[in-house]
Structures are given as C-alpha cells and as structure tokens.
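User: Run a structure prediction on this.
Assistant: Running it now.
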Amino acid sequence: MSFRIEEKLLIGTNRIVDFKSFLFNKTIKQIYEPRKIHSLYFDNLNYEMYSDSLEGLTPRKKIRVRNYPDTKDQNLYLEIKISSVEGRFKTREILDQNKFNELKTSGIFDSQYGTCKPCLHVTYNREYFKKDDVRISIDNNINYQLFGENIHKKDESSIVEIKTSIKKDLDKLTKDFPFQKIRFSKYCNAVEKIIYR
C-alpha cells in the first residue's frame, strides 16, 4: 500500500485556459489523451460515507465501480478510496460484468459501513498532466445522476487535483502551485444536489 497526498485546487471554469498556460510555462506535459470517466458510487442507507467525508472523519472510505466509456479500456474497476490518519490510498480490482450486475443488485458489504447499495452515477471528462513525481488532472463537464432514475444535475465547477507521494515537501508543493486549495468531493456534491436537494 502506498500513501499519497491529494490536493484539490479551486480554478474557475473560465480560468482553465489560463491554468493550462501556467502548466505549459512550467514545462508540465500532458501524459494521456483526455477521456471520459464514469463512476457508480455505493453507500449505506444512512449515507454514512457521505457524512464522514463531509465531517472529515478518519478512517473513512468511498466505494465505487469505475469505467472509461469511449476508450479501448472496457474493464470495470472496483475501487475503494481509504482516508486514514496515516494518509490516503486506493485499492482496485477488475470486475467482470456478471459480478458487477450482482453488486448492483445485492450491494457490497463493508466491515465499517455494512451493506452498501449503488446510489449515484458521476461522469466527467479528465485531462492528465505530470512533472517529476507530481500528477495533475483537470476535471470538466461533471454530471451527477441518481442510480436507477432519470434525475440529473450538472456541476458548473472545474476541479484540479494534484497527487504525489506522501514524502513530498508540502511547502514546495504549495510554492509550485500557488492556488487556493479546497475540500471538494464529487460524490458529496452529487449527494447534496440529488439526494438532499
């Protein structure tokens, strides 16, 4: 297991072009073609993963099945993001379609949260950049949908995520990326816009 630092930056949608120019001026290169990401999130009936994330409690988790529509990678990935006092890390395993269908029906049992059922779809476009040990992604066109229902909401935000090793010098990271840091969770926003609207 490798812990990592994750920071999110508040960049207005109308300033994304300026932010990309900032990356270019720092010789930060795009490493992959942009792609669409789709995640189906799971939570228990009380939405405790949402409330734990909102309150910043540790340990906490997010459970999702992720795939990449419109790409050659047609796998389904079960991902569990864990935030602990030591840091953050993610586990990932490939699912076949039959197992995914079973999880959508029966849910996923988690030792901390109990039975978690599918609740929200989150879809967005992501661009990928990297310099040395720092990865930067830009997420646009973020959309939320209630599982099993034709209820949609669009998020007008554009989110920049910076990910690096837990050993990274935080002062240097802040100096390299002098932008306002925020707490932002697509899943939490989806719950607020769809479930608790």
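The chain has one domain: 4-195.
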